[in-house]
Design a protein that fits this description.
Blueprint: E1 7-18, E2 21-33, E3 38-42, H1 49-56, E4 65-75, E5 81-83, H2 89-95, E6 100-103, H3 107-110, H4 117-129, H5 133-146, H6 152-156, H7 165-177, E7 183-187, H8 195-212, E8 215-220, H9 223-229, E9 232-237, E10 240-246, H10 247-252, H11 257-264, E11 300-315, E12 320-336, E13 340-344, H12 351-358, E14 366-371, E15 374-375, H13 381-387, E16 391-394, H14 398-401, H15 408-419, H16 425-437, H17 454-466, E17 472-476, H18 484-501, E18 504-509, H19 512-518, E19 521-526, E20 529-535, H20 536-541, H21 546-554, E21 578-580, E22 590-594, E23 597-600
Parallel strand pairs: 3-8, 3-9, 6-7, 7-8, 13-18, 13-19, 16-17, 17-18
Antiparallel strand pairs: 1-2, 1-4, 4-5, 9-10, 11-12, 11-14, 12-21, 14-15, 19-20, 20-23, 22-23
Helix pairs in contact: 4-5, 5-7, 15-16, 15-17, 16-17, 17-18
Length: 606
């Protein structure tokens, strides 16, 4: 390591002018980033970690913020130190993209939808390095190969909407690396990605950092990612740095109470080893918490047989039906009362379509769903409406599923009014009880969704799902967008409600550590089929299908001494789920390897 840091942040203070006066986003933060070093800045939403990075890029002014105090010393390529806090925007334009690269959290907002991938990749090279079009295109092709994008020649002429989320994020990384920056700022670059793609992108960034000596400022709230990537960790809380140190020290001997709480809230893969039943997480600082396993019952509530859902693909002049997307293919399972079955897999594996098909929010093509003796697939519109009382859904994004113009009390009361399960003043008493149950103060009943944090909104979505006393709740990625400590609270809340009310959950997720914590049984999905199904301990501790094994290997573990290397990851590209209209796949057949643990023997394409 060289003694001279590439970037020094000294006593940074950032303020925002709002209609309620000045708000401080970052109060007084100082840290250095050395060449070839990854510094992870961690903390929850609102801790000021993204604000620090936007200040360093001087993009904060475009979001209504200003640097009120501090110095941002950057060591430029030519060896001269410059204070970015005082630099004019002309100088910043030459530094941005050229000497400091940035990877944003949401690739679709970082890419321009009207230009091809090739044009966006070559733009920086031509502006900053003066390359000819031909030389820039050759360089762009090389960059796509470096970030391991399949068929890179084809991708150059495609538009962003034609690529999957993981591919778009790789393009954004390639753009950030195009001019070989001295400092790379990565703001939550893997939050929205599947575990397999996340693992590949983290390994890729680590390799590129070692090969080029770039310094990396990595912003995240995922402690498993920190353990995988960091050399040094800076912990932020409410605009201040509360702790800094080498990654092993932070994980093994955290000093500050906030760091201890943050690490305690992280579900770690392998924590449930030796336990056959799920149990809530031990929350930091809660002495009154009773941790009891959740056995559930032996009675079957939900039986799913040969569920198949296909979506038509139309094309040609007359929009004829030319092919089908095989979203869910011959899926069967049983779920007991008071238990949780988790469906896991990558984006596009069909887990959300399966969840929606159970409730007939998407009409299945064939198959049979039986909920507590009622044949859901055979019901007409009126009977289906009655049956929906017993089955509810919690969506991934609570903001999209709540009405921005209605007070929260009205939103929770809406299903009760619709079904007439309570009358008059009884309704608001019941709503108040639901607010108590999801641990929200009753004063929130008059508020609107935008006045709540993400975790609080998700609690409202849970309260609304509980309003009709359902027997089954389908939770589709219900905690994936939440900070770790909030996620731990919401998971515990769902498990406590399960124990108390005897709820059954179909829990859809790509977060393997959360799934291990909450599940009685697990179904691993790949290309619309369940490739492995069984008790959680069997699937996690003795995976049999090659896809399940690859998935388990990719999960980052919140322990810096157990890092993954690129050779641990051997993913095959996922084949297309689109087939001609007359294509009939073979039915799903399984081997029972141990009691209740089934492995697909039909060729799943993996």
């Amino acid at each position: 390591m060289l003694d001279h840091p590439i970037a020094r942040i000294e006593q940074l203070r950032v303020q925002f002018q709002t209609k309620h006066g000045l708000v401080t986003g970052v109060e007084d933060v100082s840290f250095d980033i050395n060449p070839g070093e990854t510094v992870c800045v961690v903390g929850e939403s609102g801790s000021g970690k993204s604000v620090s990075s936007l200040a360093l890029m001087r993009l904060i002014e475009f979001g209504g913020g200003e640097i009120a105090n501090g110095r941002l010393i950057f060591d430029r390529r030519d060896g001269e130190d410059v204070d970015l806090a005082k630099a004019d925007q002309d100088l910043m334009r030459t530094i941005r993209g050229n000497e400091i690269g940035m990877i944003f959290q949401e690739p679709m907002t970082a890419l321009n939808p009207v230009f091809t991938v090739g044009r966006q990749l070559t733009e920086g090279l031509r502006v900053h390095h003066g390359l000819s079009r031909k030389a820039a295109e050759a360089e762009a092709l090389d960059l796509l190969k470096q970030v391991r994008i399949p068929e890179p020649e084809r991708r150059l002429v495609q538009y962003p909407h034609e690529l999957s989320g993981g591919m778009r994020q790789r393009v954004v990384i390639a753009m950030a690396l195009a001019c070989k920056p001295r400092l790379l700022i990565a703001d939550e670059p893997t939050t929205a990605l599947d575990v397999t793609i996340q693992a590949e992108i983290l390994a890729l960034m680590d390799r590129l950092k070692r090969e080029t000596g770039t310094a990396v400022m990595f912003i995240t709230h995922d402690m498993a990612v920190v353990a995988q990537m960091a050399d040094r960790v800076v912990v932020m809380f409410r605009g201040n740095k509360v702790e800094e140190g080498p990654v092993e020290q932070i994980f093994e001997a955290p000093q500050h109470a906030y760091t201890q709480a943050l690490l305690a809230a992280v579900p770690k893969l392998g924590e449930m080893r030796g336990k056959s039943l799920p149990e809530p997480m031990k929350l930091f600082g809660r002495t009154d918490q009773k941790i009891e396993p959740i056995p559930g019952q032996d009675k079957v509530l939900l039986t799913v047989d040969n569920l198949t859902t296909r979506f038509p693909v139309r094309g040609g002049l007359f929009r004829r039906h030319i092919a089908n997307v095989h979203a869910v293919e011959d899926v069967s399972f049983k779920l007991n009362r008071g238990q949780t079955l988790s469906l896991v897999g990558e984006s596009g594996c069909g887990k959300s379509s399966a969840g929606r098909s159970l409730l007939r929010l998407v009409e299945p093509t064939s198959g049979h769903v039986d909920l507590d003796g009622t044949n859901i697939t055979g019901l007409g519109p009126n009977s289906l409406r009655d049956a929906r009382r017993d089955m509810q859904m919690i969506f991934q994004d609570p903001f999209a599923s709540l009405n921005p113009q209605m007070q929260l009390a009205e939103q929770v009361a809406e299903p009760i009014r619709n079904y007439g399960t309570a009358k008059g003043s009884e309704i608001m008493d019941r709503v108040g009880g639901l607010f108590d149950r999801v641990e929200l103060p009753r004063s929130f009943m008059r508020r609107f969704p935008h006045e709540l944090s993400g975790g609080q909104r998700q609690r409202i979505a849970i309260a609304r799902a509980l309003a009709l006393n359902p027997k089954l709740i389908v939770a589709d990625e219900a905690v994936s967008a939440l900070d770790v400590s909030v996620q731990a609270q919401v998971i515990n809340l769902m498990m406590e409600l399960q124990a108390e009310l005897g709820l059954s959950y179909v829990f859809i997720s790509h977060d393997m550590a959360v799934v291990e914590r909450v599940s009685h049984n697990v179904g691993v999905m790949y290309l619309g089929r369940i490739v492995e199904l069984g008790p959680r301990a069997a699937v996690f501790e003795d995976p049999q299908h090659p896809y399940t094994k690859a998935l388990m290997k990719a999960v980052p573990i919140a322990d810096p001494r157990r890092r993954k290397s690129e050779k641990d990851l051997n993913f095959k590209p996922i084949p297309s789920p689109i087939h001609p209209v007359d294509y009939e796949p073979a039915p799903s057949e399984y081997d029972e390897v141990t009691p209740g643990h089934f492995v697909l023997t039909t060729d799943s394409g993996y």
